[in-house]
Design a protein that fits this description.
The protein is built from 12 helices and 12 strands. It has 361 residues and is an alpha/beta fold. It has 2 domains: 3-115 and 344-360, Enolase-like, N-terminal domain (Enolase-like, domain 1, 2-Layer Sandwich); 120-336, Enolase-like C-terminal domain (TIM Barrel, Alpha-Beta Barrel), CATH 3.20.20. The strands form 2 sheets. Strands 4, 5, 6, 7, 8, 9, 10, 11 and 12 form a 9-stranded mixed beta sheet that branches. The protein has a 3-stranded antiparallel beta sheet with strand order 1-2-3, sandwiched between helices. Helix 2 packs antiparallel against helix 3 (98-114), helix 3 crosses helix 10 and helix 5 (141-153) runs parallel beside helix 6 (167-181). The radius of gyration is 20 Å and the shape is globular.
């Protein structure tokens, strides 16, 4: 099998409805976006897909670098191609997600070629997994408590906070939520890199006292030393290495420092399935969990493939809270069933017109 063409099909991604916000200082939900499908065709008739909401950036990278590198290659040679894109990154400094988009499309080809979902090719670990409710940022403690009640009624067994990015206000919210839901509900907190070390220490001590399961990305992940110092001063488990560049290699530095109680892995920020599996296996060698970041069908495939993850992240982006279709009434997600990654399961009325034309050509 050989790759015959590599194209980016641009599609309009509608603005989020209703829009939502993250912590203070971060952009909120996307306005109308210029999305892009990476479409890799082969001489066997199998086509691989992957998606990004950064279509213009992907188009530029494909035109300048990736098309000439990929056309004529064997798409099953994912290990070689992963390293080749990694090598090109040294000069081009691709956005961290670019390598993942390429790798996901190649795994999509592999799964379709043999008629299996990707998680089965990776080595099935399970067929179902509990989901936690991962909030956006709401207006008040009272609204968060209402959202928590709704999430529990929807069947979610655990809740993760994205809050305001104010250490003292967030600490009061974390304490109030623990008191509200009781001791038996697992709670997590995601700082979205909002703090310096001093504020991260303050909030970390409050999260520890409230028995939070993990404390995720409280600071930017450029300084492993700062995380080491934080880990030495707080008892709440740190979940680290979510957005740090360097895939499994940077994760290894976090683990070696001693600060990591668990690490993040993902297809989007760890170089596709290939990089995500490296990270998960690295963590497993130290008896650490590799919790999968972000929702979506590629994340579901990854959740089902690795043994050392415990939850699927399900975004709660509105009030009233909405449970997405992939999460059932018991708060559980199930393994995808379509061959490949399974993007086609979202095409209820067929793929977008531009993509449909590309797939039929």
């Amino acid at each position: 099998m050989k790759i015959t063409s590599v194209d980016v099909v641009r599609v309009v991604v509608p603005a989020y409805d209703p829009p939502f916000v993250w912590r203070e200082g971060l952009p909120g939900s996307e306005p109308e976006a210029d999305g892009g499908w990476l479409v890799i065709r082969t001489d066997s008739g199998v086509t691989g897909l992957a998606f990004t909401v950064r279509g213009a950036i992907l188009n530029d990278v494909v035109d300048r670098r990736l098309r000439s590198e990929l056309v004529g290659q064997d798409p099953i040679a994912r290990e070689y191609l992963w390293h080749r894109v990694w090598e090109l990154d040294r000069i081009d400094r691709f956005p961290v997600w670019v390598q993942g988009v390429v790798d996901i499309a190649l795994w999509d080809i592999a799964g379709k070629a043999v008629g299996l979902p990707v998680y089965q090719l990776l080595g099935s670990a399970r067929e179902a997994l509990p989901a936690y409710a991962s909030t956006v940022t709401f207006s008040s403690i009272e609204e968060y408590l209402d959202i928590a009640d709704q999430c529990l009624e929807l069947g979610y067994p655990a809740i993760k906070l994205h809050a305001w990015g104010d250490a003292r206000r967030d600490a009061r919210l974390a304490e109030a939520l623990r008191e509200h839901v009781g001791a038996s509900i697992p709670l997590m907190y995601d700082g979205s890199a909002g703090f310096d070390l001093l504020d991260a220490l303050y909030l970390g001590k409050a999260l520890s006292a409230a028995d939070y399961l993990w404390y995720e990305e409280p600071m930017r992940e450029f300084s492993v030393t700062a995380y080491k110092w934080l880990g030495e001063r707080v008892d709440v488990p740190l979940l680290v290495a979510e957005v740090a560049e360097g895939a499994h290699m940077k994760t290894a530095d976090f683990i070696a420092s001693g600060c990591a109680a668990a690490v993040r892995t993902s297809t989007g920020l760890r170089g596709g399935f290939t990089g995500a599996m490296r990270t998960a296996h690295l963590a497993d060698s130290f008896l650490l969990r590799a919790e999968v970041h972000s929702p979506g069908v590629a994340s579901r495939q990854l959740c089902m493939a690795i043994s050392n993850t415990t939850y699927y992240e399900s975004l709660i982006d509105s009030n009233p809270a909405r449970r997405p279709a992939e999460v059932d009434a018991s708060g559980t997600v199930h393994a995808p069933t379509l061959p490949g990654v399974g993007f086609e399961e979202d095409f209820v009325d067929g793929p977008p017109a531009a993509l449909a034309g590309a797939l039929s050509s």
